[in-house]
Specification:
ten-stranded mixed beta sheet, 705 residues, alpha+beta, single chain, 28 strands, 34% helix, globular
C-alpha cells in the first residue's frame, strides 16, 4: 500500500511537472500592458511576442475598431454583402484576383512563430469587440469574428491590389497615365550632420481616410523595442525605428504589374498562332439591399496564361499579371525590418524581397545611410519602360515574363559622398545628386529615365545647399511650405502683368511681388498663384504633368542644373490669359486678391477648423497637401502629410513626430483632432521612447492578466 502511494505521488509529480513545462512553452496572450499616452499612442510592453501581438490587436481596435473591421470585411471580398452597393466594385477586384483564397494559402505558409503572432493579433481584435460591444458599431460587428487569414488578406489586398495593381491602374494603363500616391524620405549621414549622428525623415502623404491611414504605436517585448506606424489594420509596423536604426518607405515607380491585350477567339484567346482555352471558375458576390436582403451576383473569373481577365469589351480582353504573388512572407519581413539594429541586419532582411514595391530609406547609429529601390521587377523579354507602361500584346509568348530580378540587380545607394539621400517618388537615379547609379547600366524597363517633379527638386535643393544639419534644421526643412515652381516663373508673370498695364493687372503685380512664395497660414499671393497654375496647365487633372518633362517652360530641365530648371514661360500670351482669369475668379469668390492661404485652406476634422499650411506637391511644396473643395467654398486636405517623424540616431535617441489626423477614428475619441492645432502651427511633438517618459505622460493603462 505504501509503495502504491509513493507511485501515485511520483506520477502526480510528473504530471504536474509536464503541465508546468507545457505552460512555459505555450505563452499566454495576456502577459502585456498598454500605456496610453496623452496623444492616444499605445506603448505596449509584453513578456513575449504573442502577448505583444494580442495587445496590438486590442489597441488598434480601441482606436480604430470600426475602420479596421470594415477593411477586414473588404479583404474577404464581402464589403457589399455587409454594407451594400458602394462596395461592389472593390469586392469584384478582390474576387477577380483571388485575394482571400491566396491569403488562406499564405497563412499555411507562415512560419509557426509568425502564425501564432497573427492568431494572437486577431484574438486581440475579437476580445476587444466582445468585451466592449458598445464601442463597435452594429455594421462593423457583421465582420466578427476575424482570424489571421483576414489580417493577411487585408495586407495583401492593400499592398498588391491597391498600391501595386489597383483597378484604377487598369484605367490608367489604358490612358497611359500614372497615379498620385506618394511620400518623402530623407537620410543624412555623419558628414552632413552637425552632431555626426545620422538623421532619418519618414513622411508618407496619402489620403486622410480609409485604408490609407496610419496608426502610431510603440512595441516592446524581449528582443524588440520599436516605434512607428502601421498601415491601418496591418498587424505589424510598416515604417519604424528603434534605438539604433530605422527606415522609411515611399511609393516608387516599380511597374510590378502588366496588362496584356488578348484577342478572343472560339471560346478562348489567340496564343502563338493557336487558340488557347481560358481556365474559368464561377464565383459569387452577395450585395446587401436596403431592406437587408442579399442579392447574389455570379462572376465568371477567366484566367489566361498571364493571369485573370480584368476587362472585356469590343472583342478584346485584358489580362493582368502581377509580380510577387508567390511571396507569402511580407508581414514577417516588415516585422523583422522594424527590429533590424543596423544596416547589415536590415539588408539581410530586405534581400528576401517579400514586399513587392516601395523605395526603402534606412539609417543607423553606426553612420550608415542606405536607399533601395525595393521591388519585384519582372525580367521582361523585350521593351523599355514606356513599352510596358500601357497595354502590351498578349497573343505571343515573346512578351510573357515568368521571373523577377534578384536583390543584387536592384538600384541601391549606400553611404554616398554627398552625405545625403532622398526620395520623393521619382525614379531611383536621383537618390543623391550627383547620381551614383547610371540608369543606362540597368534594364531599360527597370524604371523611367531620370526626371524630377518640382517636389523632388525642392528636396534636392534643400539637402544640397544645407551645410551641417541639426535635428531642428531637419524639422524646419521638412516643414518648408516654399513653392518651388514660384521661384521659376513669378518674375516672368509679374513682368507680363506690368507690361499689360490694366488696373486688374496692376493689382496682380502688387500681390505677387509682395508674396514670399510660401504657403504658410498668412501667405498672401499663394492662393492667386495656385489658381493661376491650375488654369495654366489646363485643369486640376493635368497638375501632375508639371515637372521636368513639361513643355510649358521657356528653358527645359537640365540634369546639370537639377533644381534651377525648368524655368521661364514658353507661351506668354496663354500664361497672361490664365493669370488674369485666375485673378477674376479669386476676386469674385473671395472679394480680394490678397486672400491669406490659411483663410481658404483649412485643417478641418469634425468641429475643429483651423488655418492650413502646405500645398500641392506638383507645384514643389515639400509639405505636401492636396486641396479638396468643400460646400462652403473653402478647401481641406484630401491627401498629403499624414505622419512625420524626424529622427536623430543619437544616444539617447531624439525624434520629433506628428500624426496629422490624430491617432484614432472611433467617434467617441478626442484623439481624432488633438494634433490638428500642432499641424496648423507647424509644430511637432517630442517622442516618448522610454517607459519613464510614457508613464510621465500617461492618460490610461490597459493591463492584461
Amino acid at each position: 500500500m505504501f509503495r502504491k502511494s509513493i507511485h501515485i505521488i511520483v506520477v502526480l509529480g510528473l504530471l504536474l511537472q509536464i503541465t508546468e513545462t507545457h505552460a512555459q512553452r505555450k505563452p499566454s496572450y495576456k502577459q502585456a500592458e498598454i500605456l496610453w499616452d496623452t496623444w492616444g499612442v499605445p506603448h505596449i510592453y509584453a513578456k513575449n511576442h504573442e502577448s505583444l501581438f494580442y495587445a496590438y490587436g486590442w489597441a488598434q481596435s480601441k482606436n480604430h475598431g470600426n475602420l479596421i473591421l470594415q477593411l477586414y470585411g473588404q479583404g474577404r471580398g464581402k464589403g457589399a454583402e455587409y454594407w451594400g452597393e458602394k462596395y461592389v466594385s472593390a469586392d469584384r477586384w478582390v474576387i477577380l484576383n483571388s485575394v482571400y483564397e491566396r491569403a488562406q494559402e499564405w497563412y499555411k505558409a507562415q512560419k509557426p512563430a509568425m502564425r501564432k503572432n497573427l492568431d494572437a493579433f486577431a484574438q486581440g481584435v475579437n476580445d476587444y469587440a466582445t468585451q466592449n460591444p458598445d464601442k463597435i458599431s452594429e455594421e462593423a460587428k457583421r465582420v466578427l469574428p476575424i482570424d489571421a487569414v483576414d489580417l493577411i488578406a487585408h495586407s495583401h489586398r492593400v499592398t498588391h491590389f491597391v498600391f501595386l495593381a489597383s483597378d484604377a491602374r487598369l484605367a490608367a494603363a489604358e490612358r497611359v497615365q500614372g497615379d498620385k500616391n506618394g511620400s518623402n524620405a530623407w537620410a543624412v549621414g555623419p558628414s552632413k550632420s552637425a552632431t555626426g549622428n545620422t538623421l532619418l525623415l519618414t513622411n508618407p502623404h496619402l489620403p486622410w481616410r480609409d485604408l490609407y491611414m496610419y496608426f502610431e504605436a510603440q512595441l516592446v517585448a524581449p528582443g524588440v523595442n520599436t516605434y512607428g506606424i502601421s498601415r491601418m489594420g496591418f498587424p505589424v509596423l510598416t515604417m519604424a525605428f528603434n534605438a539604433t536604426g530605422g527606415y522609411a518607405q515611399t511609393v516608387n515607380t516599380n511597374d510590378g504589374q502588366d496588362f496584356y491585350e488578348l484577342t478572343l477567339a472560339e471560346g478562348g484567346y489567340r496564343w502563338d498562332g493557336k487558340v488557347k482555352a481560358f481556365e474559368t471558375k464561377e464565383k459569387s458576390l452577395k450585395i446587401r439591399q436596403t431592406d437587408g436582403r442579399l442579392k447574389e451576383e455570379k462572376i465568371a473569373v477567366k484566367h489566361s496564361i498571364h493571369g485573370p481577365v480584368v476587362s472585356e469589351k469590343g472583342g478584346k480582353a485584358i489580362a493582368m499579371r502581377v509580380a510577387g504573388l508567390q511571396q507569402s512572407g511580407m508581414i514577417e519581413q516588415y516585422w523583422d525590418m522594424a527590429k533590424a539594429k543596423d544596416l547589415e541586419e536590415f539588408e539581410a532582411v530586405v534581400s528576401r524581397l517579400q514586399i513587392p514595391m516601395y523605395t526603402l530609406m534606412f539609417a543607423d547609429n553606426k553612420g550608415n545611410i542606405f536607399n533601395l529601390f525595393n521591388a519585384e521587377v519582372p525580367k521582361r523579354p523585350v521593351g523599355d519602360w514606356k513599352y510596358w507602361s500601357g497595354v502590351v500584346r498578349g497573343d505571343t509568348s515573346s512578351t510573357l515574363w515568368t521571373q523577377t530580378h534578384p536583390y543584387q540587380d536592384l538600384p541601391k545607394v549606400k553611404n554616398p559622398p554627398t552625405g545625403w539621400l532622398q526620395n520623393t517618388n521619382e525614379p531611383p537615379w536621383t537618390a543623391t545628386v550627383p547620381m551614383v547609379n547610371n540608369y543606362k547600366d540597368f534594364p531599360a524597363y527597370m524604371a523611367p529615365p531620370p526626371q524630377m517633379s518640382f517636389r523632388t527638386q525642392s528636396s534636392v535643393r534643400m539637402l544640397s545647399t544645407a551645410s551641417k544639419i541639426t535635428l531642428d534644421d531637419f524639422v524646419e526643412m521638412k516643414l518648408s511650405t516654399k513653392m518651388e515652381l514660384a521661384d521659376r516663373i513669378v518674375g516672368d508673370l509679374v513682368a507680363l502683368a506690368q507690361a499689360e498695364g490694366s488696373t486688374e493687372a496692376k493689382e496682380v503685380v502688387a500681390v505677387l511681388a509682395a508674396w514670399d512664395h510660401r504657403t504658410d497660414n498668412e501667405s498672401k499671393g499663394a492662393f492667386l498663384f495656385d489658381r493661376f497654375v491650375r488654369k495654366w496647365v489646363g485643369g486640376n487633372e493635368k497638375l501632375n504633368s508639371l515637372g521636368t518633362a513639361s513643355t510649358l517652360f521657356a528653358k527645359p530641365w537640365d540634369l546639370n542644373q537639377p533644381y534651377g530648371t525648368p524655368s521661364g514661360i514658353a507661351d506668354a500670351k496663354a500664361a497672361l490669359t490664365a493669370l488674369l482669369d485666375a485673378a477674376k475668379e479669386v476676386k469674385a469668390t473671395h472679394g480680394r486678391l490678397d486672400v491669406a492661404w490659411g483663410e481658404v485652406f483649412r485643417f478641418r476634422i469634425n468641429d475643429v477648423d483651423l488655418p492650413g499650411n502646405g500645398g500641392p506637391g506638383p507645384m514643389g511644396v515639400f509639405r505636401t497637401m492636396t486641396l479638396g473643395p468643400t460646400t462652403d467654398g473653402k478647401f481641406v486636405p484630401v491627401h498629403g502629410d499624414t505622419y512625420v517623424a524626424a529622427i536623430e540616431f543619437s544616444k539617447p535617441l531624439k525624434a520629433k513626430i506628428l500624426t496629422s489626423y490624430g491617432n484614432a477614428t472611433q467617434p467617441d475619441s478626442k484623439h481624432q483632432t488633438d494634433q490638428l492645432p500642432l499641424l496648423s502651427e507647424k509644430k511637432m511633438r517630442s517622442i516618448w521612447f522610454s517607459r519613464k517618459e510614457a508613464e510621465q505622460h500617461l492618460e490610461e493603462k490597459t493591463v492584461f492578466e
